[in-house]
Queue: 4 jobs
Job 1
Amino acid sequence: MLTSLTTSCRRLARSPTREAAIDFGQKFDWRRFAGDEIGLLLDDHPWTSGIQPYLPEFEALTGITLKPRMVAEPAYFAEMEAILRADPVQADAFFLPMDSTAYRLWGDDLLLPLTPLLNNPTLTTASYNLFDFPEGFRLAAMYPPNRSSQQLFGIPATFEAYILFYNKRLVNQFLAGRVPQTMAELVQAATQINESGQALGAVMRGVKSDAIIDTVSGIMLNGWGAEPTPLPFNLWFDGDWQKPCMNAPRVVEGLTTYARLMQAGPANIKQMDWPEATQLFQAGKAAFYIDASLFGPDFEQGDTSAIAGQVGYTVLPRVHQQSLTGHWLWGLGIPRRSSQPQAAWLFIQWATSQAVEAKIAVATGGAPRFSSWLTPSVYTEAINFDYALAVQTAMQTSRPTAVLHPKWNQVALAIAATIHQIYDGAQPALAADQLQTTVKQLMAGEGSP
């Protein structure tokens, strides 16, 4: 498991087709749609880079021609929506953000339910095990949420859980090698290092944007404890859209923790999103970084990372008895008006199978199947042992960071603005009270689903 990513990728390239043939039985008719053509709409993401070498393998297996289209972020989200709303739809399978965006698309009747395809033995192999994905991953795209009639509208493709990265050299230099075990200790240690002027204590997503909300939610879930956070409300609402929890003590504590970690970072942290924060940590300038687990493999790339071999990986320092966290998912979905939905399902089924997922995940570090972390493969050979242990531990209890409401992005932006206020010196309780009022106004007139 300590083999480098580069070595594993070279090993993987030698015989991909022969390896995949072991996993796909002869009884299932993979060629039932031979001659068809399907369009793929994909975000320019490491998952997309990971699957590209194997697309010819799918075409050879099925006889289906793939027409992939890659769009870079952030333009992907707008283009995705435009394509889904067009008539005809110029995509049959697409990269689906499994959060409030997917929920909104479902509400607008733009997503095809996958449950009937999953339950059709002529379209789904007997070996395709949906329950190999953690329940928290599956729930993120099951609508209507918490209803007996719910169906699945997306299959997990790659995930990020929120973990702690740390620079071993700086932890040795300033903390005698002791990694903080609680969140309070982490804030104290990061502040101490930052005040030394010799290194940054922490880097975080600090920009005032709804885009930071999943990292914020991961920290909030850690401080929330074992009490359930059911969808669609998550921890932010008390079972009703008219009952936000923005000034609940645990929420105030989480927002304050996030602001304190920002204060232990660079002076321009309020202008930093994940690319800038990741670059600073990768350059060896910061001791701590809480963010998406999928960044881990890049830190071990010696040609681009100044800290390869010097990064520690662990779950979030606990607030209560146990470390907890959240996760965010990219998945694969089918547009409601796809002209080739069954052929598209074959692609999704193949791309998210255990055999193929292990190959793609070498590029992402975010294999969403339990088995991919436990079954020896190119994936388990490629990933750092400590990284694998941290992520596998996190995904056992991680919960969705999603809130399933069309106005969630507006609420998330208000939460980010409140963190900025606390960072700038506002009293946390007063800032949270103001946030509570703002969210009530945003949600006015919204009843329970």
Job 2
Amino acid sequence: MSSGEGAAAGVGFRSERGPVLIGVMLSTGLVAIDSTIIATAVPSIVDSLGGFAEFPWLFSVYLLAQAVTVPVYGKLADVFGRKPVMLFGIGLFLLGSVLCGLAWNMGALIAFRAIQGLGAGAVQPMSMTIVGDLYSLEERAKVQGYIASVWAISSVVGPTLGGVFSEYVSWRWIFFVNIPLCLVAAAMIGLRFHERVDRRRPRIDYAGATVLTTGLTLLILGLLEGGQAWAWASAPSIAVLASGVVLLAVFVLVERRAADPVVPLHLLRRRLLVATNLVAACVGAILLGLTSYVPTFVQEVLGTGPLVAGFALAALTLGWPISASLSGRVYLRIGIRSTALLGGVVVVLGAGLLLLLDGSSSVLQVGATSFVIGLGMGFTAAPTLIAAQSAARWQERGVVTGANMFFRSAGSAVGVAVFGALVNARLGGAAAESAGVSPTALTAAVHLVFVATAVLAVAMLAAVLLMPRDRGRAQAAEPVEAVPAG
């Protein structure tokens, strides 16, 4: 099917590519729901399995496993095709979900969450890569609305299901609920997504993949655990971070000599890809900062309950998909770079509103501020990813998409480290005991996070400005080297 035939087939569930779109949406839903459903179930899990001190690893190990494998999966998809990598990821996520539901202690649950993360590392970038393959630039303007709706629904369904399962059934069902979703997604993609892959003899860059994965693991592990498991200036912290940096330097040397490198270094020299990856890193850091500290601010400073705090954060996750679904129509009119610039300006405006929040602010003001930032994010994150994909050939699109996803995850990891360090430095010894932190002290500490968020928003806008200027309507008509659904 050519791109023209694809357009004729239409966009939507009833079109020829509809079953594949449903499969992609379900796959996206797996990752989206899993990122929120476990948060509300943590107290029940700790009551059942114990291990309160270790429960943060339920999030850290998942993020780590997902982040470090994304670049490798991207390369494998360019060599073997999207379909086998996607099905492998769904299968691994399914296995991890079943094992998590059967976990007998916190250590086992953490290990099985790592398996889930390894599966998510394939599912998330493959979903976006398949969309980039199947749909032209004009069609992706509509498809983006479908994908954005998944995140919007998941932001509400995830925490709700987590609470319902924990209170009325068992926390184990937050993992077992993934079983039917995985099976349906795999069936849709396995049966209805067909692709033409260049059956050249693959040359796997095992050395590059190993060094990259190990280096990223050490670097992100050091960032996630710095100031938590060990002090930043301690020997373990320095050793882990330094080893990660050294291995990444070795990786660059290995890739220069590799016949078919896992991450072609020439891609990292393209101005557009450098700019969009920087945008993705800022997006990840800003998102992590808001999701981590807005609920804390609303509960501990403004004195509300968890439900109201969740509402304030939901405003962010509501604004994002609304603008993401509209961004397609906008970039077809004014261009991708201009759309991303619009979004960046809105994010900077929202971050400026964050700086006005204090102990006398209302929950409505916090929610409105989050909503504004979410609107800006939707106009920035989605178009810049689409721009990166559109600049790559089919043989490179998996790597390009994987790199963008990785930079977002890396931004989140760095954000965790920086924001945590700022808060702990401000609160001092009282940070270890939440009961000993006064609302005034916490307001000052969270204000530092808001300042850092504003700085990141400006940096994101600067990264958008680095993007090459739009080529007008010619860009929107750019042909897609589609690998069609049959």
Job 3
Amino acid sequence: MSIKTTHKPGGFMAQIISMFNHKGGVSKTTTTFNLAWMLANKGKRVLMVDADPQCNLTGVVLGLNPEWPDDDLEDGLGLLEGDEESEDFDKTQSAAEDFWTTNFEKTLFGALKPAFDSEPRMLEAVDCIPVEGRDGLFLLPGHLRLGEYEVSLGIAQELAGSMPALRNLPGAMHYLLTQTAEKLDIDYVVIDMSPSLGALNQNLVSISDQLIVPTSPDFFSIMALQSLARVLPRWGRWAKTASQNEVLGEASYPFPEPRLKLGGLVIQRYRLYRSATDDEPYGTPTGPFQSWIEKVEEASRDQFVPALAASGLTFDMDAYEAAGIPSSLVLAQVQEFNSLLPKSQDFHVPVYELSDVQLGQAGIVLEGSRAQIESLNRIFSQFADRVLELLSRES
């Protein structure tokens, strides 16, 4: 697929992709990591931004997971002192303590602090962390304290027009990300977000060029789409009003003119009845999962997409068709990673980058893993191509 480059107003090139759904458990972090890496595989310079106070993306990329998974605790009583797992846990916690203690200003929270604390200095581009093993891929780490900005930003977004003292906050995030992206010559900024409808997420979605909504094949994902069909148009109207507000326009960090368009959905975390083939690249889901995949597609096609289209938050439908995206706007279907996921986390690489040595398998088990890795590589490659094709069009 041929990808065009879109020049943005003022000559700045980076475009922002937000990965958002206020329903939890839909693999937003995993999708962010795998998509961003694939975009870098395709020669793009990509900045991942961890905007979730839980810092899961930072943990995955740097091996700093703040907690030991519950499934790994023995009998729910914790790990015995002195055993290998306990020592690994201690090393992880010590590494996390060291990182967040010594890299405060490199985190999203620390970098935004001058604006939210009204310090007499401008925000500066962040010295982001190059991701080991993938040239052109960078991380702007998260911080647990990012949630402290929620209330201040919420007040500012509602009252900045009438209270000039708050005028710098709504545009601060956009200014910081664009300055950082320009410093690193970034093509695409991909943001991992928390599952909430708070002011931070409203701001991040509103300053994005493209929105991707991860879902899973279940009833709560349908409820989430119905909710977002009401929420996102309201956010779009707020962003348009904010961009035209005279007070915000004269701020040190002006709120930008909104360009948000829906990229589409991702449906993931389903089990397969038959493995993927060239003819069936997503594999054949088990009966119950297939049924709910179809219900999510229907909810998107008949409710979610029309609501966003009516608010000007979609591309022309011809653009989706040209990119090979169905009318449900499902960009990709991604099956459960199963045993590949912990390996991916152990080696801090996407599932489709795992090597035979890293898998540590043999025989028929290795053959099965190789087939799944090949399938996932095709899926994420097509996913990335579709995202790039849409972003190549004037929004």
Job 4
Amino acid sequence: MDTKAFKRSLQQSNNYHRRGFGHEAEVEGMLKTEYQSSLIGEIRAHQNTLTRGDVTVRLAEAFGFCWGVERAVAIAYETRSHFPTERIWITNEIIHNPGVNQRLREMNVGFIEVVNGEKDFSGVREGEVVILPAFGATVQEMQLLNDRGCTIVDTTCPWVSKVWNSVEKHKKRDYTSIVHGKYKHEETLATTSFAGKYLVVLNLDEAQYVADYILHGGDREEFFEKFRNAHSEGFDPDRDLDCIGIANQTTMLKSETEQIGKLFERTMLQKYGPTELNQHFMAFNTICDATQERQDAMLELVEEDLDLIVVIGGFNSSNTTHLQEIAIERGIPSYHIDSADRIGPGNRIEHKPLERDLEVTENWLPEGKLVVGVTSGASTPDKSVEETIDKIFKLKTPALV
């Protein structure tokens, strides 16, 4: 399938929409009421620090809703306003935030169900409205909806589209796209649907394994077992790693993406030499600015004298998880929650440790003076951060709240 030609044709269709519908003023007021926070504004005005009683909260310099997320949510709200009576669907969570997705359900937006690991589009009828989320959708999903005559509202983040353009360039030159990401993640599924040959590597360890295979060969069966479901159909590591291009899931850890890119550049340089490098290796900067800013801000925050850190964001949010990783690397106690509802009753918190199931920790806020670092993922509204901070203050200094 010529995915580039299909996408161009789709974007020229009268049934395809990538911008709002002229309801900006109405939607802006709704978003401000539902997601913005006066308390966060107050903390920002005081160098991102607020003390009440024994508790000092220090906010990261950059956190919460990024431009791409704000845009996606705003377009989804505009879609509901523009089609007040039509049945509206969304192919996935609009963003990885339970509160925002629940609000869309309350606005009578239907979410495509996953049955036996596959999305079930059988309930979407011809001509109905379907929103593509900020992570994007696969080419196959777009084609199905287009063939069904649906009105498609595309909120895909432009940074994600930039990655798609990169893998299209790899495909044009018959290069294999090596994608730093999680092969089951919605964004990576969408990205690989635009690729030709591809291989998804989760981390630097997996990338090193591939680099060693490029230089020295290896056990094919072991390779396929290690990367089961993480490569294109018909992929052959002995044939398809001669020419490679680097891409990434935009929410991965920036430093690791950069390390992986440099690793493969060195690998191809070692194998083919400097004069042949450009015939075997391609790389483009596809690291999302917002992801980078939030990670950089977290790196600055962990340099502060903190007793613990609270990271707020969806449990399936990749960029939020990577913020938690930074706290863990610095040895600072961290608690990843998806909303303030995880705090209480009493001095307890239900949280998700890295790569483990939910746990409950009692007496998580120690006695005495306390400095708490707070950050949130790019899909977390300020209102959710405010609610979390408010609960912390109430637990420690109830008389002052």
